Each structure stands twice: as C-alpha cells, then as structure tokens.
Amino acid sequence: MKILILILFFGFSNLIFSQELENKDFKAKGKLVGKIFWNYNYNFAEDVKKTSSFEIKRSYFGYKYVIDKKFSVLISFDAGKGSEENSSYSAYLKKAKLEWKVASKVKLSLGIIGLKQFNDQEKLWGYRYHKFGSSADLGVNAEIKILKMLKMNIFILNGEGYKKIQDEFGTHRIGFNFIAEPIENLY
Question: Domain range holding 179?
C-alpha cells in the first residue's frame, strides 16, 4: 500500500511539474463579454396611439477569465423584457461554467453551460430556431473532435433550462449529437 501511495505521489508531482513548465509563459487574462439586441419599430397604421419606439429586447453581459491553456471560467447574465408591453426587465444567471481542455480533441464544460445546438445552427445558416429548447442548462458536456469536419457532444443535463434549474423529480437528461462543420470552415 505504501508503494502505491509513493507511486501516485510521484506520478501526480510529475504531472503538476510538467503542467507548470507547459504554462510557464502563459499569462492569465480576463475580459468583459456582452451582446445587446435592440430594434426600432414604426407603425404606419392610422389612428394608433404609439407610432414608434426604440426597444432593447435582450442583453447578455458577463466576464470570461482564462486561467491557463487548459482552464477557463465564464459567468454571464441574460437580461430581457417580459412579453407584456410595459413589463420591466428581469435578469437570469445564464452561464456559470468551467471549461477544461482535457486533450487536443476533448473539452469538458460543467456548470450552467451553453448548449451547442444554437451555436451550431447559427454557424451553419446564420439563424436559430427559437423556443425549440433552452440555450443553456445545468450539467456537464464533453465535446469530442472526431474528424476535422465532425465533432460529437455527450451531455448530462437537468433538462429544464437556465431559468428553471431543476424539475421537481430531480431527473436528468442524457444525450449526444454529432455536428458536421460547414464546408467553408474545412479549408
């Protein structure tokens, strides 16, 4: 048993030391992140009470911190207006995640993570399906690059989205998907 403990100790010491050498020239850095969706409306109909307005429908704001070459953290909020005309803004914690690049082709994300389907839809054709599912949820995701043009995601999530973190039964949703990169990204 003592020999096993010594082997583990020296093995982990070597791993930690090699990571320190690998990250010697790396400087941790952080940045503010955000996106605002606003629009302008004008009503050309006659006898209307409100003819024009500026609106901010939704905004995302947060902070991303890259710890080293393998680890980063992100926290972001989603502030938006309700569906009623005069509703106030409300803010939700949208993402609170840790990303770990386990290997060159494997990345783990845990916490309240952004789900991949909307990012991939937007990359492929510039649009996304709204109300098709939540864009973030609490859980873990493993992204695995299989080929240059093909990646796979395996995930375990609460399945309720970031506005309702867990259902009343405490169940999880398990799934996977394959994503093909757009042709123009291959070259």
Answer: 104-187
